[in-house]
Amino acid sequence: MDTAIEVDGLVVDRGGRQVLHGLDFAVRRGSVTGLLGPNGSGKTTLMRCLVGVQKVRAGTVTVLGRPAGTPGLRRRIGYVTQAPSVYADLTVRENARYFAALHRLPRTTADESVHDVGLDPVAGRLVAALSGGERARASLACALLSRPEVLVLDEPTVGQDPVVRRDLWLRFHALAEAGTTLLVSSHVLDEAGRCDRLLLIRDGRLIADDTPDAVRRRAGTSDLETAFLSMVLDGEAREPRMKGAV
User: Fold this and answer.
1) CA distance 109 to 116
2) Burial of 222 (0-12, 13-18, 19+ CB in 10 A)
3) Which residue from 4, 9, 43, 40 is spatially nearest to 23, judged by alpha carbons?
4) pLDDT reported for residue 241
């Protein structure tokens, strides 16, 4: 099976308002797909659907051949939220070892995961004492422990310096080459070119689903940020702007 994620006719309401409007797309296995769009465009709601924690009004979401949220998918999907998902009163190493124990994995696997995200220098520090970027990497280290087949990352590079961002993207592509499917959300358009494919979302609607090069050609520009802005402005000119997506 070449497809890891399939979304068909997805409609979601939140707070009495429709925030996703009939989305259709598929994500290939072993790829890095960027989910890009302005803040409030519906990226987080879509990711919640993929991991099975969001109620949907219509449509289907299939992950690894099963409906999203199926109990059997829990160990096969990793999800890193914007908010840190580790314990602030434990050290980085203690967090990783705790989550490793839950997966019945050895301590060495936990320590390797901490190393892979570049946190060796602060492995003995309490998470509460870390910077925001370091906390995000601590959460990523714990998510990687179970070697998930699908990894959903919500703004994983926010607060990271350029060197760390480069290293994280190298890590993402290494995971994809090993077979993991990654969906990476971001509102930083200079990261779009690092993805194999792009999902561009605006006001809960998919306005592009293509490779970075194809998006550039469609907009008639070599700059992805300019291309995305052109698509957003074109959409605003053709239809009323819908607000309220999260």
Assistant:
1) 10
2) exposed
3) 9
4) 42
CB neighbours of residue 10 within 10 Å: 25
| Domain 1-76+182-246 of CATH type 3.40.50.300 | yes
- The number of residues making up the chain comes to 246
* Residue ranges in the chain whose pLDDT is less than 50: 237, 240-246
- Per-residue pLDDT at 235: 59
- Residues 30-43 have pLDDT tens digits of 999 999 988 888 99
Q: Indicate the residue type of 197.
A: R
- CA 80 – CA 6 distance, rounded (Å): 20
* 187, amino acid identity: H
Cβ–Cβ contacts within 10 Å for residue 213, how many? Answer: 11
User: What is the tens place of the pLDDT at every residue in 81-103?
Assistant: 988 889 999 999 999 999 999 99
N-to-C CA span, the chain: 31
Cα-Cα-Cα-Cα torsion 232, 237, 241, 246, nearest 10 degrees, comes to -10
